[in-house]
Design brief:
The complex is a heterodimer of chains A (about 375) and B (about 300). Chain A has about 375 residues and is an alpha+beta fold. Chain A is built from eight helices and 20 strands. Chain A has a six-stranded mixed β-sheet with strand order 6-7-8-3-9-10, sandwiched between helices. The longest helix of chain B has about 35 residues. The chains are: A alpha+beta (about 375), B mainly alpha (about 300).
Chain lengths: ~375, ~300
């Protein structure tokens, strides 16, 4: 892992009663980095954030900020600020009082509070709203007041607990970019908890995917998207189609044996740590190409499945086909529709096919099918 | 009411008018009886319209009962009870809701169980405790031998120093009544509805427990405090049994006790007109409190529900 991380977690674990919520979390975050903690509900991402903020103590391990051990420091001594999912604004204070309250507690003079609050307001586009109570603000404005309150105390680290989940979908898209731009401009280190894959992808420098209290994979958005380290990550990042295959290593190639729905094929092994035997293949519906049976010979490297279209729908931008391959069903997108009942070939290019040794996988299949056809356009 | 239907409107108004009449009639009859002469007040049937002796009767009752002093006593005792009850119960509720300490729930349930023990039930032990507040300490020092030891070695009479009798004092009238299980319970229930995030946000901003209490919980509880102070004002003003038992000197009487003394007894002149005139002005402060605070109270409720 990188050396000299600004925020470091070493062997952090947390348990709630007899339940292990987090285990062996090692994470190093450098100054000014925007890190997204991504995972489905119950994966421990919120626990991890609360642990960073100091609301709970880890059962093992340590948290360091700039080489200072903060593991057992109270929340206000850590140089961190948190934007709550519910914003947790003081309902009886005005927007300006909300932003300035932390400064007031720190004993900052009245005039300086006014200056800083005014600066926050113009930074966040809240001018003219200073006298309003939170109940008189819109969701987006409340979110900005919450952000202003967090930033007013000039924290080194900004923690964001799904701050966009209470905004409606259209505002959310613009706020993503505003928040990211603001973070870059201020050069602040940000840790963003979310369960929204796309939100993590567009905002973060690095994505840390959590599964069952452990880090499943961390890397740039491009890495976790294109080189998922496990079947869980692949499924979580949208590779929802699962097919069980058999194959053997052969030099630089992984040779997939002929199956019920596919001919023999081989894909470059690259740096995949695969061993011979049963494998779980995953791919995204949009990476598959749908062809008529006659076109099969014309396509390049990869694997081709043969099946029958079971259903077709138009979620927007492309046609989504449910294709039956023997016992399993997969989804594949195409620019034109095939009629239900049509015999088709589904071609998956080698680079879009994720292969994992079946035995080593966590039971990840629960993730697939939860969000079929989720389209952001 | 979302429904707009003429029949429903009439029904609602009838119910409201009946309620208003039920509350207003006794006040009205006190006023009517208070405005008649001794002769007129004996009439059967009772007159429905007021006479013209109200001012005269009121002044008579006021002077006869020395209500100036009694009003002052009543106000001191009532305000003491209201402030005491609010302070004790909001702090107790804060402790029970926001702090983790051993026997927290035991403490809560003990407070809660005391709901079943109003003053009337525990009147004798309470009297004993307040009339001789030093008693338990005396017994304790006696038992451990400190009293005898001090008397023998220094001649200091610990027994005599630990006499604390609160009969005929304001503290004696107020202190036994300032613990309130129901107010504690109400504040606790309210605190439980305050989102945990607010507490966490306060911690992040560096607010200690007392800052959080003062800057967040108190302002948020203002509607509850307003509502409770109305209820507790009525409770304090209407106290009867405790002041009756605990005051022996006339200048420590509360207005309620003064009113009792004006009620005609057998073989005396049945001066119900005087008693009713006094009733009227003894009832007036609680009625005024409700009328004046109601606006504020409703406003508080509406603001907090947003």
């Amino acid at each position: 892992m990188e050396r000299g991380g600004f925020l470091e977690l070493r062997g952090v674990a947390s348990r709630y009663g007899s339940t292990q919520v987090l285990a062996d979390i090692d994470l190093s975050i450098s100054k000014g980095e925007f890190v997204a903690l991504l995972g489905s509900s119950g994966c421990g991402k919120t626990t991890l954030l609360r642990l960073l903020a100091g609301f709970i103590s880890p059962s093992a391990g340590e948290v360091r900020v700039g080489h200072r051990d903060v593991t057992h420091l109270p929340p206000d001594k850590r140089g961190m600020a948190l934007v709550f999912q519910s914003y947790a604004l003081w309902p009886h204070m005005t927007a300006a009082q909300n932003i300035g309250y932390g400064l007031k507690l720190k004993g900052v003079s009245r005039t300086e509070i006014a200056t800083r609050v005014a600066a926050m307001q113009s930074l966040l586009g809240l001018d003219g709203l200073e006298a309003r109570k939170p109940s008189a603000l819109s969701g987006g404005q409340r979110q900005r007041v919450a952000l202003g309150r967090a930033l007013a105390v000039d924290p080194e680290i900004l923690l964001l607990d799904e701050p966009l989940s209470n905004l409606d979908a259209r505002i959310r898209l613009t706020v993503r970019h505003e928040l990211r731009a603001l973070q870059k401009r201020l050069g602040i280190t940000a840790i963003h908890v979310t369960h929204d894959r796309e939100e993590a992808m567009v905002m973060a420098d690095r994505i840390v995917i959590l599964n069952a209290g452990k880090i499943a994979q961390q890397g740039t958005p491009e890495e976790v998207y294109n080189r998922p380290a496990s079947a869980f990550v692949a499924a979580f990042m949208g590779a929802e189609n699962v097919i069980h295959l058999d194959g053997v290593r052969d030099g630089g190639q992984f040779v997939i044996a002929e199956g019920a729905a596919n001919a023999k094929a081989s894909v470059p092994l690259l740096d995949r740590p695969l061993t011979s035997g049963p494998v779980e293949a995953r791919f995204r519906p949009e990476t598959a190409r749908l062809l008529t049976e006659g076109e099969v010979a014309a396509v390049g490297s990869g694997i081709t499945f043969r099946g029958e279209v079971a259903a077709v729908s138009y979620p927007g931008g492309h046609w989504r086909h449910m294709v039956r391959l023997g016992q399993t069903e997969i989804m594949a997108d195409g620019t034109q529709a095939f009629e239900p009942g049509a015999r088709v070939a589904v071609h998956v290019p080698a680079e879009a096919l994720f292969l994992f040794n079946a035995s080593a996988n966590e039971p990840a299949s629960t993730v697939s099918r939860t969000t079929p056809g989720k389209v952001y356009a | 009411m979302v429904e707009r239907h003429i029949g429903l409107s009439i029904f609602c108004h009838v119910v409201l008018l009946l309620g208003a009449a039920a509350v207003g009639m006794p006040l009205y009859f006190a006023f009517v009886a208070g405005s008649l002469t001794v002769g007129e007040v004996q009439q059967v049937p009772f007159p429905l319209l007021p006479g013209d002796h109200f001012v005269e009767n009121t002044i008579g009752a006021w002077n006869e009962g020395d209500f100036g002093q009694l009003y002052i006593n009543s106000f001191i005792v009532t305000v003491g009870i209201v402030v005491g009850k609010l302070t004790v119960s909001i702090i107790a509720a804060f402790a029970v809701t926001y702090f983790r300490f051993p026997f927290r729930m035991t403490a809560f349930w003990l407070i809660f169980i005391s709901l079943m023990l109003p003053v009337e039930v525990r009147i004798i032990p309470t009297y004993e405790a307040v009339a001789d507040a030093g008693g338990p300490l005396r017994s304790f020092f006696e038992a451990i031998g400190l009293t005898g030891f001090l008397a023998n070695t220094t001649g200091y009479q610990l027994d005599a120093a630990l006499q604390w009798n609160m009969v005929n004092t304001y503290s004696g009238l107020i202190l036994p009544l300032i613990a309130s299980a129901s107010a504690t319970f109400l504040f606790r229930q309210f605190f439980l509805t305050v989102p945990d995030e607010l507490c966490e946000a306060a911690k992040l901003d560096g607010a200690g427990p007392l800052k959080f209490f003062r800057d967040v919980l108190l302002p948020l509880s203002s509607a509850n405090i307003a509502a409770l102070s109305i209820i507790l004002f009525l409770y304090g003003w209407n106290q009867y049994l405790w002041p009756l038992l605990f005051t022996t000197e006339k200048e420590m009487y509360t207005a309620m006790i003064g009113l009792k003394d004006l009620i005609p007894v057998a073989d005396a002149q049945p001066a119900w007109n005087i008693a009713m005139a006094a009733s009227f002005f003894v009832m007036a402060p609680p009625a005024l409190v409700i009328l004046l605070m109601q606006r504020w109270f409703t406003k508080g409720l509406v603001d907090s529900s947003k």
